[in-house]
Design brief:
This protein is mainly alpha-helical and 489 residues long. Helices cover 60% and strands 5% of the residues. The chain has helices at 3-11, 26-43, 63-66, 79-93, 105-132, 141-147, 150-179, 184-202, 214-222, 234-241, 247-265, 295-317, 337-340, 361-389, 394-403, 415-422, 426-447, 455-480, 482-488, and strands at 267-274, 281-287, 327-329, 332-335, 406-407. The two termini are 37 Å apart.
């Protein structure tokens, strides 16, 4: 008996959101999407009961792409979902699962059940060290005394809330995927990053923000309320590199926005014709960023999990941690293996003149090289896995085109023939697009972005928003022309 037969009773009984039986009107999809988004913002402001003086965010600068909120019921964010996806993609890429998710409905159900089970396991594996190791989510002595359950009991209470938050975000994502527009994971990333981006541009002084936004800062500079020093001295560095009003950050933010929108429009279009309807023609676009920017979540999440492991080891071992493995200052790696594996997140991580790093130039060079290699190669690899596991590969796409009654003019109406044509473009474009996105993410982090959202967060937000716009336009077109919905399924 294989693992599928053994696990099938459990995986097929995993709770799931029911699929709509028929067509869901576009307005209802928007209503579901907006409702879940409002719930998401509400939950990111529901703080954990029993939490003491909050420690540092264990996700650190990865928080913008892992969504959620530090110290709230959505403490885990989309971390467990993304980590489970990494595990499944690696297992699927190595063909260890033995599941045919393209043609076998039973295997599709098993895959979805396995994904949910892994998310639950990841909620436990991620939440336990957050609560019980280190000082990341400390228990409140006052609550322990008032409830009479001790600090250990309060920690169990905090863990239960963190675990339930992870499960909630899993099913909120499923609701949007089946009843709403786009992807829940993508929507939560856009929500978190957009919030920080708007704050980075427009935050006013003294209104609950850590620092004044870009535009208010320049207004204060113009009226003489914000001193910057001489433009021939330190003032020039402030004008260019300041995390608050630096012009390079503005230029990088605009550059990433323009490049992603342009890259989304660069495509190879394969002509198609309908074998049954004479004169009906179309095109299949193979975009430059064919796998989308979403595989970058997987790469950054893998880095976040490695840094998470380092901070847990540092919290447990302290001075007993081997120096070659990592040395820490204020919960940030300053040397050792975990330092070299930490991604560049801001200009101060690699420019000693900004006074935010004390590392030697050779150490900085190694760290930049590792980050660049990790993102470029990792982006290409995860893009390939993403294409294969989401039925975007040549074989699955050829079956979809053939099933819709379309064919490539001048070729036989055969899925194998279509697959051979697609193989000329899809694998190469997938690798190039994945590597390009990784390179852009590292470059944006090195130069800085408005609001400190990070290069990956900005890339994800622009790309997801662009695809959401395309999906909304397609939904509206289908609503106006129901015959097109029947033709394209």
């Amino acid at each position: 008996m294989g693992w599928k037969e053994t696990a099938e009773p459990v995986l097929t009984r995993m709770p799931s959101v029911a699929r709509p039986e028929g067509h869901v009107p576009f307005k209802r999809k928007l209503a579901w999407t907006a409702g879940v988004l409002v719930l998401y913002f509400f939950l990111t402001n529901v703080y954990l009961y029993g939490l003491g003086t909050a420690g540092g965010d264990i996700f650190g600068r990865f928080r913008s792409i892992l969504a959620g909120g530090q110290g709230t019921i959505l403490q885990l964010g989309i971390g467990p979902i993304v980590t489970a996806s990494i595990v499944l993609q690696l297992l699927g890429g190595a063909d260890l699962l033995g599941l045919d998710t393209q043609n076998n409905p039973r295997d599709q159900v098993l895959y979805q059940g396995l994904q949910k089970l892994l998310v639950i396991v990841m909620c436990i594996l991620t939440g336990l060290p957050m609560v019980f190791a280190g000082n990341f989510l400390p228990a409140s002595p006052q609550v322990a005394q008032s409830l009479g359950i001790g600090l250990a009991g309060v920690k169990m209470l905090i863990f239960a809330q963190v675990f339930m938050g992870g499960i909630l975000i899993l099913y909120m994502d499923e609701v949007i995927s089946k009843w709403g527009v786009g992807s829940g994971v993508g929507l939560f990333i856009v929500a978190g990053v957009s919030q920080r981006l708007i704050g980075g541009f427009f935050a006013l002084p003294g209104i609950g923000s850590e620092q004044v936004g870009f535009f208010p800062s320049w207004i204060l500079i113009a009226i003489g309320e914000q001193p910057i020093g001489s433009l021939f001295g330190s003032g020039l560095q402030q004008v260019l590199m300041s995390s608050q009003f630096g012009l390079i950050r503005l230029a990088t933010t605009i550059f990433i926005f323009v490049v992603v929108v342009y890259a989304e429009s660069v495509r190879v279009e394969i002509p198609l014709s309908n074998a049954r309807v004479k004169g009906a023609r179309g095109r299949f676009p193979v975009k430059l960023i064919y796998a989308s920017v979403l595989p970058m979540i997987l790469v950054r999440a893998l880095q976040a999990n490695l840094q998470f492991l380092g901070r847990i080891l540092n919290a447990q071992l302290g001075a007993g941690m081997p120096a070659w493995l990592g040395t820490y200052s204020e919960s940030q790696p300053t040397g050792g293996l975990f330092y070299y594996m930490a991604p560049i997140q801001r200009p101060g991580d690699w420019i000693p003149a900004l006074g935010q790093t004390t590392a030697e130039l050779w150490q900085i060079a190694i760290r930049v090289s590792v980050d660049l290699t990790f993102m470029v190669i990792g982006g290409a690899i995860f893009a390939i896995f993403w294409v294969e596991t989401t039925d975007m590969g040549p074989e699955a796409t050829a079956q979809q085109i053939h099933g819709s009654g379309m064919q490539i003019p001048g070729f036989r109406q055969n899925p194998g023939v279509i697959e051979k044509v697609l193989e000329r473009y899809i694998p190469q474009v997938t690798v190039i697009g994945g590597a390009l996105v990784g390179l852009l993410a590292v470059m944006a982090n090195m130069l800085g972005t408005i609001g400190g959202v990070g290069g990956t967060g900005l890339l994800l937000t622009v790309s997801i928003t662009y695809k959401l716009y395309e999906e909304i336009a397609e939904e509206q077109l289908m609503e106006m022309h129901p015959m097109m919905r029947q033709m394209f399924g």
